[in-house]
Structure formats: C-alpha cells, structure tokens
Amino acid sequence: MTSFEIFAIIISMTALFGWINERFIKLPTAIGLMLVSLLMSLGLIFFATDAMQVWVKNLLIGLDFNDLVMNGMLSVLLFAGALHVNLNDLSKQGWPIFVLASVGVITSTFIVGTLTYYMLNFFDLHISYTYALVFGALISPTDPIAVLSILKSIGVRKDVETLITGESLFNDGVGVVVFSVIVGLLGTSGGHGSEAVDAAHAVESSNNVMNALTLFGQEAIGGIIFGLILGYIGYYMLKSINSYPVEVMVSLAIVVGGYALAHALHTSGPLAMVVAGLLLGNQGRRFAMSDTTREHLDKFWEMMDEILNAVLFVLIGMELLIVVYDQQRIIAALLAIPIVLLARFIAVGLPISIFRLGRSFPKYTVRLLVWGGLRGGISVALALSLTQGTERDIILAMTYAVVVFAILIQGMTVGQIAKRVPPID
After folding, report:
1. What band does 206 get if pLDDT is binned at 50, 70 and 90?
2. In contact, 242 and 191? CB cutoff 8 Å
3. CB 3.0–4.6 Å: which of 73, 142, 281, 361 could bond 168 by disulfide?
C-alpha cells in the first residue's frame, strides 16, 4: 500500500468518524473521534475476520505512528497552540509554569517509575528499574494536543487556563528530553525518525551522569535558544513584506524547516516550536502583520490544528489493535492509572502549595491541574519508539490504558471541576 493510499484511508475515516460524532454522539470532537475509533477497533477485534484484522494492523504499521507524531504532527500542533497564547498572561504565571514543567516532570518520572517497578514485580512482570523510569518519563508530561483540545470546550478562568496551557506546552518538550536521556542510559531504542530516539543515540554507550546532564542542557536550553532564533527570523521576514500568502508560507517554513533543523542540531524541536510560536504570536502579531495577514494566518493555523487533532485522536483509537494484553498486563494497565494520577497530584500539589505562600491561586486549582493533565498521542508515540520486546509490550499496554482513561474519562469530566473554580472578581 502506498503512502498516499494510507493517507487517503485515514483522512476518509477521520471525516466519517467526525460526521458520526457530530450527527449522533455530539461529544467534544477529540473525545468523540477517539470513542468512535475505539469502538471500531473493538469491533474489529471481536467480530472481524483474521484477514481484516491483519490488513488494518499492516495499515497501522505502515503508517508508523511514532514517526508521524514526533516528526510530523507535533511541530505543527505545538506551534499552533503557542501561537494563540498571550505572552503577558504567560509571564504572570512564569515561575509556576517553569517549576511544573521541569521539576514537576522529573519528580513525577521518578514517582511513577518507582511505584510501577514494585507494582510490576509484585505481579511477576519483571522489568528493570530503568525501564520503569522510561515509562515514568513518557507518561509524566501532559500532552498539549489533548489538553488544548479539551480546554477549548470546557471554559476555564483566564489565569488558570494560562497556567494549564503554559505547563502543557513546555513540559512536553522537557518530557521528551528526559525520555531521551533515560533511554540513552538504558542503551536500547528501536524505531526510526523520532527526535527522542535519535537524541538517545548520543548517550547510548555512556553511563556517565554528567553526559546525561550535558545532553539535557543541549536539548532543552538549545531548543529554547533555537526557537528564539527561528522566531526572530520569522518576525523579520514577516515585517519586511505585506503579502499574506507568502507570510503564511513563511510561518509554515519556520515550523517544518525549523523542526527538521532542530532535529539535525540535536536540540529540542518541541521547545523550539513553542518559543517560536509564542514570539510570532505576540511580537509578530502586533508589529509584523497587517490585519489581513493576521486574519489569514490565524485561520490557516486553526484549520491545521483542527484537522491534525482529528486525525491524531482517530489514530490513537486505532492503535488499540496493536496493543498486546493478557490478564497480568490488564491488571498492570489498570493499576498504572491511579499511580500516574497520584504522581501527578504530588508533582503538582507540592509546588502549588509552596507558591501559595507568596501568591494566591483559586480553589480547585490543584484538582483541575491533576484531572486536566491529560495524556495523549505523544506518550503513545514514545512508547512505540522503544525496542520490540516484552518490556515494550508492558509499557505500551500501560501507556495506552492511561491515555484512553485520560481522554475519555478525565476529558469528559474535567469540565465539572472547571465550573467550581471561582471567577475573577
């Protein structure tokens, strides 16, 4: 099957599932698409012939979900998300966002990894502690794609929305870097084309903590600096002309070409896209764009965001077909859900409690951050990038369970918590 044929099938399925959701189910788009896709996958598992199941699995394998998300969709979706974040609002929440996106992710990684290690060994699913940390690293960052998609539909007071959005945009890049470092120390990685996997090769043969810290600095700090450079290049180019078709193409080139170049320079592409998006969405929007350009640029990136989000959630639902489950793995997958939520509560609750000594946060902020901290396609993509084997199958099963629970259960109920957050006086 050619790449175009695979693309045509996925787009057609996404459109059909979107129509079914809008016509009959009427859930928020992300949740509805994933639900319909999951139901289709379950139908194939229980009712389809072996030949049909093999055909769909081959379709998914040929698609390469990890490469599609990490080196295709992620750059566009992160840039599109950051493009509409107000930098002034973000700066007011700067320190909490920084701590949650860095210390919070690392704290959660070790809590999830440690609890998962003992839980799995209790059920005779033996994996190394380092592999348990790999699971902690890939599941700890909240997925900005899932978070931003759900936030659009629930309505949250502006300061809390900025905190959630900022954290999800930045902790994604930090999480990918942490994953890269741990996988590199483990010295085992499969998949091809993933930024996380390629970065991991740089430390694959080293057990030196200093090398790991150097890689972390190169990826994280380098990504932020490179994002600033990209943003200012885009700003200069947009300011020097007044032609909205060309300006839209320039923004697209900044995203696609910039992400590829970040990968080649071994810096964090996700962080670079967030920084570039923030700069163009604020300074660029105010000083480098005409009203016509601003309108067309916003519509273009909103449409890209909506289409790729829809495709991504359909693919997440379909990935159920390649997840290997047995009785032990089902138990482990179900227990991984409260472990991840507990780690999230600690990693969020402690910093917010400390920040409350010097600033005010509305009631239910911690609960909203915990329950609204959705996991999505990035976690699944990172799990799929691991080397084939028993450990990968266990991690993928747990990851998929957490992601499905997050999007379907947390995503459908987080609005009830958001309603309890008091409005700004």
Report:
1. very low
2. no
3. 142
Helices (H), 123-208: 129-139, 144-154, 158-186, 195-201
Tokens coding 308: 């790729």
CA–CA separation, 298 and 285 (whole Å): 10
Residue ranges in 155-283 assigned as alpha helix (H): 158-186, 195-201, 209-239, 244-264, 269-279
Per the listing, tokens 């033996």 go with 126
Q: Which two tokens stand for residue 23?
A: 């016509």
Res. 180: pLDDT tops 50? yes
- Quick check: helix, strand or coil at residue 325? coil
**Of 322, 395, 386, residue with least CA distance to 54:** 322
Distance CA 398, CA 328 (A): 11
**Crossing angle of helices 158-186/377-384, nearest 10°?**
0
Q: Is residue 309 classed as helix, strand or coil in its secondary structure?
A: helix
What per-residue confidence (pLDDT) applies to 155?
Answer: 67
Q: What is the reported pTM?
A: 0.89
Residue 84, SS3?
Answer: coil
Cα radius of gyration (the chain): 21
DSSP state of 277: H
Share above pLDDT 90 across residues of the chain, in percent, rounded to a whole number: 63
Residue 269: both structure tokens together: 């592409």
277 phi/psi in degrees, rounded to 5: -65, -40
Query: Which residues does 223 contact at the CB level (< 8 Å), separation at least 6?
Result: 173, 177, 262, 267, 268, 269, 270, 271, 272, 275
Which of 32-36, 81-85, 153-157 has the least mean pLDDT? 153-157
- Determine the Cα–Cα distance for residues 120 and 229; give it in Å rounded to an integer: 45
Output phi, psi for 245, to 5 deg. -65, -40
